[in-house]
Design goal:
Two copies of one chain form a homodimer. Chain A is of the alpha/beta class and 214 residues long. Chain A has a single domain (4-20, 28-86, 98-213), classed as Dihydrofolate Reductase, subunit A (3-Layer(aba) Sandwich). Chain A contains six helices and eleven strands. Chain A has helices spanning 37-40, 43-48, 58-67, 77-80, 132-143, 154-162, and strands at residues 4-12, 16-18, 70-76, 105-109, 117-118, 124-128, 147-152, 168-174, 182-183, 195-202, 207-213. In chain A, the strands form two sheets. The first copy, chain A, has a nine-stranded mixed β-sheet, with helices on both faces. Chain A has a two-stranded antiparallel ribbon with strand order 2-9. In chain A, strand 3, helix 4 (77-80) and strand 4 (105-109) form a beta-alpha-beta unit. The mean pLDDT of chain A is 94. Chains A and B meet through strand 10 and strand 11 of A and strand 10 and strand 11 of B.
Chain lengths: 214, 214
């Protein structure tokens, strides 16, 4: 069975995993993109956005790892889009256009049922209303021996951490102060849950930390 | 006039500046010392504790900076000792023995008056009951053109940050998860207060970040 991983998760110095006031214009919240400077220059990100070139050092190694080896993804509703409450129609198909960067079954946590959406490039969005455990069961079944990625956002990652269901998490600590936003660690006792830092590797743009459950 | 600085302030990945349950045996709280690994090996710390040798790289540069150029110090009551409430007698003179590492006037914030204590090596402890602004005025007057250090603990640093009275802060982010303790940034919007990260320098044991008010 594959592992359950969080990867490429950017964190501000003051502990926020996303800025405040997510919207259609600001999917990462206000000033959220400032935390992703380490990612935007990498080969992996440039390839995801249809471009050549990009950096090839520590940041690229973590960027690659953050998108590689996954057979299924789980996303929170807000990570999928800015719509809240019932789906008004079937028009919204994610932030990513016709060919999303997942290329695998992708399970969206929501309280509001919706039929699956088959996208280009191998991504199918499935909407799961039965909670995080059921979503993980379905994702594991879809992934087979590959890993499952908890893709975010902050609230979703916190729920899986709190339930002890994450095997490994890569955090990219960025040297920015957001001031407001969604706090990743507040009220979560990861030490008591068995998590330890197993790796700390700096680049010029971030400090990459890996935590694992022991 | 000198600057007001926080320096050598260790922070866990999950945002704690001290562990829980500070006591005579654990002045930094439970597991607090794990955040100071970067400091304990340095020349500066070894010299402070009467020993030769020690490291001489990035960590030493920040350790040196964290003790250098100060003409006065401000400490919270808990940083001075584990006693709460009224002073039972004059026996407690800090954690540091007869010759504390300050070598300058050191102002202790407390609600409980006490006569100054002249220690060896140039440190005099003054007890200030009139609040953080008065303590800073007295420290500035004592420091002259040298800097004033807000020496901690977490609650004291937070109060000075919230009041916008800190010019520069050096944080050493350590790759540990404490799980519980005193959160440094919770509820503080440092961005709105005008603080920005101006420097990020990794060592093998910590990431050193400097924030300044603009």
């Amino acid at each position: 069975m594959g592992r359950v991983r969080v990867a490429g998760f950017s964190l501000s110095l003051d502990g926020f995993g996303a800025g405040p006031e997510q919207s259609l214009e600001n999917p990462l919240g206000q000033r959220g993109p400032e935390m992703f400077t380490w990612f935007f220059g990498t080969k992996t990100f440039r390839a995801m956005t249809g471009r050549d070139g990009g950096s090839d050092g520590v940041d690229e190694a973590f960027a690659h790892r953050s998108m590689d080896g996954f057979g299924a993804f789980i996303l929170g509703r807000n990570m999928f889009g800015p719509i809240r409450g019932d789906w008004p129609d079937d028009a919204w198909k994610g932030w990513w256009g016709d060919n999303p960067p997942y290329h695998a079954p992708t399970f969206i946590l929501t309280h509001h049922p919706r039929a699956p959406i088959v996208m280009e490039g191998g991504t199918t969005f499935h909407f799961v209303t039965e909670g995080i455990e059921v979503a993980l069961e379905r994702a594991r079944a879809a992934a087979g021996s590959a890993d499952v990625k908890i893709g975010g956002g902050v609230a979703t990652v916190r729920q899986y951490l709190q339930a002890g269901l994450v095997d490994e998490m890569h955090v990219a600590l960025s040297p920015v102060l957001l001031g407001r936003g969604e706090a990743l660690f507040a009220g979560l006792d990861l030490s008591a849950l068995g998590y330890r830092v197993t790796e700390s590797t700096p680049s010029e743009l971030a400090t990459h930390l890996v935590i694992k459950r022991e």
